[in-house]
């Protein structure tokens, strides 16, 4: 099976959607949450996490937004969780995301799109090391 790094972004936490979103993840057959923490991210952690976007016009606002309140970081483990969580989240732009997906159901603004989920096995390995370095 696979592991993915998920972040419930500050908008999701502020709006009281932690339970709603985690509930959707929990209801997927055979998936399990194997680590979970509420924490406020610092600039250094976010630079590691979103380094691929450095220099893009949305980078600085994204960094500010991601530090605007606590996030919930979690590790999800199970069958094809990487692809599955991206499907559950929906595409980056919540207006383009289908109803039924997390971004499609709850989002309108591209920056405030509620959830991050690793986009590949390589990203998952890299991101898990940033957020849960103690994980074996
Ligand atoms: P993450 O799971 O957060 O990584 O989202 P993603 O993989 O769907 O998108 P991507 O990695 O390309 O971008 C990271 C984040 O930057 C997105 O979730 C958005 O919040 C923000 N972002 C990406 N593209 C744009 C854009 O064109 N405009 C704005 N305002 N924000 C963007
Ligand atoms: Mg991404």
UniProtKB/TrEMBL annotation:
Compartments in which it is found: Cytoplasm
SUPFAM superfamilies named among the record's database cross-references: Nucleoside diphosphate kinase, NDK
Oligomer status and interactors: Homotetramer.
Gene: ndk
Keywords from the named record: ATP-binding, Cytoplasm, Kinase, Magnesium, Metal-binding, Nucleotide metabolism, Nucleotide-binding, Phosphoprotein, Transferase
Annotated Nucleoside diphosphate kinase-like domain residues: 1-136
Keyword Metal-binding carried by entry: yes
Pfam families: NDK (PF00334)
Source organism superkingdom: Bacteria
Cofactor field: Mg(2+)
Cellular component, GO annotation: cytoplasm
Binding residues annotated for ATP, in chain numbering: 9, 58, 86, 92, 103, 113
A single MF term (Gene Ontology): ATP binding
Main function: Major role in the synthesis of nucleoside triphosphates other than ATP. The ATP gamma phosphate is transferred to the NDP beta phosphate via a ping-pong mechanism, using a phosphorylated active-site intermediate.
Catalytic residues (UniProt): 116
Enzyme class name: transferase
Record-stated family: Belongs to the NDK family.
InterPro entries: NDK-like_dom, NDK-like_dom_sf, Nucleoside_diP_kinase, Nucleoside_diP_kinase_AS
EC number: 2.7.4.6
Principal subcellular localization: cytoplasm
Name of the featured protein: Nucleoside diphosphate kinase
A biological process from GO: UTP biosynthetic process
Reactions catalysed according to its record: a 2'-deoxyribonucleoside 5'-diphosphate + ATP = a 2'-deoxyribonucleoside 5'-triphosphate + ADP; a ribonucleoside 5'-diphosphate + ATP = a ribonucleoside 5'-triphosphate + ADP
